[in-house]
Write a structure and sequence with these properties.
The protein is 36% helix and 18% strand. By secondary structure, the protein is α/β, with parallel strands linked by helices. The protein has a 7-stranded mixed beta sheet, sandwiched between helices. A 6-stranded mixed beta sheet has the order 9-8-7-10-11-19, sandwiched between helices. Helix 8 links the parallel strand 10 and strand 11. Helix 2 (84-100) packs across helix 6, helix 7 (227-235) packs parallel to helix 8 (248-260) and helix 9 crosses helix 10 (315-327). It starts with 26 loop residues before the first strand and ends in a 9-residue tail after the last strand. The chain binds 1,4-dihydronicotinamide adenine dinucleotide. Residues 167-171, 194, 196-197, 226-227, 230-231, 234, 245-247, 250, 253-254, 268-271, 302, 405, 407, 433, 478 line the site of 1,4-dihydronicotinamide adenine dinucleotide (NAI).
């Protein structure tokens, strides 16, 4: 198949920070990019590494949302009639195209999100694997057959829901779109996806990929916009389900709106996850785990382990090593292979994170490193939203930095003495997305995993999240699951068919 550029890029090999130009329309339905109807309410979208405007974001209004949903519905009528094997073939082709164009998509993701190219490539690879995984599941979808008295029988049909809406956050723009689309499509649904208005650029590439792979026009659609567009999606009567990734306050609104139409919802919300490091751990691994738990995507990861509980005896060695490695993180141009930390998503997000560091200091925390705005030496990065990764010592459970989700590169370290004490403290949160434990004691590791009030527990690592396993929250971190086989339950409904083989015995 001849390759054509997915998006207007300057000569591909020369793409670097400050060069991407996005001119094409960012909406997609009926199998094509669609220009916004009313360009009056355009808002700038930034390249986080430079602060330069990458493109304009024009939110979709009622008529446009309606068109996208109708486009999805007409695709659903065809797609849902295909055998799982036929859907799988198209999905595998989509995954192949993503792999082929992985570097290109990753570079666009970096330009729009600010994360490093190394991480973006991993995200795009994960997206391709996710589509492959659900392509493998599509042909296995099946019902149950039950024999009844007198030769009668009953069976269940596992049927798709219809038009599903995905609403995404800005931290993993392409990956979130795929994590919602892949299971939805595998199960025979169609999707309308709304990215975060801060990262509108790569979801539309996914729409092009599905089209190129042979999906019916309208199977995966993209509408751009913020709260107003999201509201239109949640209330639309032709929408069967809303899968949401974002903050707790917005999640509550989405649930409330969806409840009016008795729509199913999946909620992937925020977190303030604990990472517990016992003195019998393999210290170097624990240090590396703490860094992976805090600094990926500039700390803007929902399942990050930002409350790091360290057993008192090993605190000095732990801090020395963690600070040494944090100071050594190469920070700067995210398009360069050697960079390990890029720019935060926006100026307001940067200011918010820096303000959290200030409050932490006022409440008695000690900044061991970082926590300041950072100006890389390269002049083109001067307007970028950079800060140095921060480690906070002397933290207490009642401090704001320990209680609230910061969503930036800030690790709060807290000492503990006993297992019983730390478990109680670790669970003392309204969130419950993830948790982690480092110990060489196998029994203790599983005891901790059992007690943690969280959707995941990582033993002797952190943020590994295999896509074959369910991902989601306890408590206010949400409900429903993404990834893994169980997600089929969230994108299908069961119909029971009862077949009478004899005569009707009537009481009347
Ligand atoms: N649990 C998970 O899987 C993940 C959770 N998150 C959470 O997301 C948050 C950061 O993302 P943000 O984009 O700032 O969250 P946000 O809640 O502000 O926005 C999320 C999405 O909801 C849309 N939205 C806003 N108001 C809406 C409304 N009234 N109706 C419908 N849609 C609306 C936004 O445009 C965006 O697409 C963090 O709290 C983070 O923990 C982020 C990534 C993964």
């Amino acid at each position: 198949m001849a390759q054509r550029p997915l998006i207007q890029l300057p000569e591909f090999s020369n793409v670097s920070t400050g060069t991407l130009v996005v001119k094409e329309p960012l909406n997609f339905w009926n199998g094509a990019r669609v220009r916004p109807k009313d360009a009056k309410s355009a808002e700038p979208v930034y390249e986080p590494a430079t602060g330069r405007v990458l493109c304009d974001l024009v939110p979709c209004g009622e008529e446009e949302v309606d068109q996208a949903i109708k486009s999805a519905h007409s695709a659903f009528l065809k797609w849902s009639k295909l055998a799982g094997m036929e859907r799988a073939r198209i999905m595998l082709e989509a995954a192949r195209i993503i792999r082929e164009r992985r570097d290109e998509i990753a570079r666009v993701e970096v330009a729009n999100n600010g994360k490093t190219i190394t991480e973006a490539k991993v995200n795009i690879d994960t997206a391709a694997r996710c589509i492959e995984y659900y392509a493998g599941i599509a042909p296995t979808l099946a019902g149950q057959h039950i024999q009844l008295p007198g030769g009668s029988f009953a069976y269940t049909r596992r049927e798709p829901l219809g038009v599903c809406v995905g609403i995404g956050a800005w931290n993993f723009p392409f990956q979130i779109a795929v994590m919602k689309a892949a299971p939805a499509l595998a199960c025979g649904n169609a999707m309308v996806f709304k990215p975060s208005p801060m990262t509108p650029v790569t979801a539309v590439i996914l729409a092009e990929v599905f089209k190129e792979a042979g999906a019916p026009e309208g199977l995966f659609n993209v509408v751009q916009g913020g709260a107003e567009t999201g509201t239109l999606l949640c209330y639309h009567p032709m929408v069967a389900k809303v899968s949401f990734t974002g903050s707790v306050p917005t999640g509550k609104k989405v649930m409330e709106m969806s409840s009016k139409g008795v729509k199913q919802v999946t909620m992937e919300l925020g977190g303030k996850s604990p990472l517990i490091i016992f003195k019998d751990c393999e210290l170097e691994n624990a240090v590396k785990g703490a860094l992976m738990a805090n600094f990926l995507t500039q700390g803007q990861v929902c399942c990050n382990g930002t409350r790091v509980y360290v057993q008192r005896d090993i605190m000095p060695q732990f801090l020395e090593e963690v600070v040494k490695r944090t100071k050594a993180i190469p920070l700067g141009d995210p398009q360069l292979e050697g960079t390990r930390m890029g720019a935060l998503i926006s100026r307001p997000q940067l200011d918010k994170v820096l303000a959290y560091v200030d409050v932490a200091k006022k409440q008695g925390a000690k900044v061991l490193c970082g926590g300041e705005p950072f100006a890389p030496s390269d002049p083109k990065l001067k307007g970028g939203f950079f800060m140095s990764p921060c480690v906070l010592d002397n933290c207490r459970d009642d401090m704001t930095c320990v209680k609230e989700e910061i969503f930036g590169p800030v690790m709060s370290v807290l000492p503990f003495d006993t297992e019983e004490e730390v478990l109680q403290r670790a669970n003392n949160s309204t969130y419950g997305l993830a948790s982690g434990v480092f110990t060489r004691d196998v029994s203790r590791a599983h005891r901790v995993a059992e007690v943690m009030q969280a959707g995941s527990c990582f033993i002797n690592n952190y943020n590994t999240n295999p896509l074959e396993m369910p991902f989601g929250g306890y408590k206010m971190s949400g409900f429903g699951r993404e990834l893994g086989q169980v997600t089929v339950e969230y994108y299908t409904q069961l119909k029971t068919v009862v077949v009478e083989m004899g005569d009707v015995e009537s009481l009347f």
